Amino acid sequence: DELKHYGYLGVFLISLLLNATVILPVGNFIILFTLGGILPLPIVVGLAGGAGAAIGEITGYLAGYSGHGIVEKSRLYNRMEGWVTKWGAAAIFIFSLFPFAFDLVGIAAGVLRFPFRKFLLFCWLGRTILYIIIALTGAWGWEAILPYLG
C-alpha cells in the first residue's frame, strides 16, 4: 500500500533510476507488478515505467558513446555488438523486451554511434510493451494469465 502513494510519477522515477544502472542487474518488475495491481490504470503504469526505463537506459548508450571502455569486450558483449551492427533497431527493440543483457546492447549502440533518437524510440517501445504486460499481469493476477502461456 505504501507504493500506491507514489503513483504514476513514482513508477516513472523508479524505472528511470533502476534502469540507469549500468551492468548491475537491478529490476523493477516486482514494483511494476504490484503497482499494476493497486493503481487504477495498469496500462498507464506500463507507459510511465517504459518512459522512465528508456530514459534510464541512456546511461549505457552514453557510456558506450564516450568510448571509455566501461565493459571488457567479452564474448557476450561481442555477440551483442554484432547483433546491433547486423540488425540495428530490430535488435534494440527485441532485446529491450527482455530484462537481461540490455545494458550491453545500449553500450554497443553507443560504441557503434547508432542514431540516438532511434535508440531511444526502440528502447522505449520494447520496454513499454514489457512493462504493460507486467502491470497487466499484476492487475489481472497470475490465474488469468497462465492459461495463455501454455
UniProtKB/TrEMBL annotation:
TM helices/strands, residue ranges: 6-31, 43-67, 87-112, 119-142
User: Where is the major localization of this protein?
Assistant: membrane
Could you tell me the membrane topology recorded for this protein?
Multi-pass membrane protein
Record domain VTT: where:
31-138
The alphabetized UniProt keywords are: Cell membrane, Membrane, Transmembrane, Transmembrane helix
**Which one Pfam family would you cite for this protein?**
VTT_dom
Gene Ontology cellular-component terms for this entry are: plasma membrane
Location comes to:
Cell membrane
What is the name listed in the Swiss-Prot or TrEMBL entry for this protein?
VTT domain-containing protein
The organism of origin for this protein: marine sediment metagenome
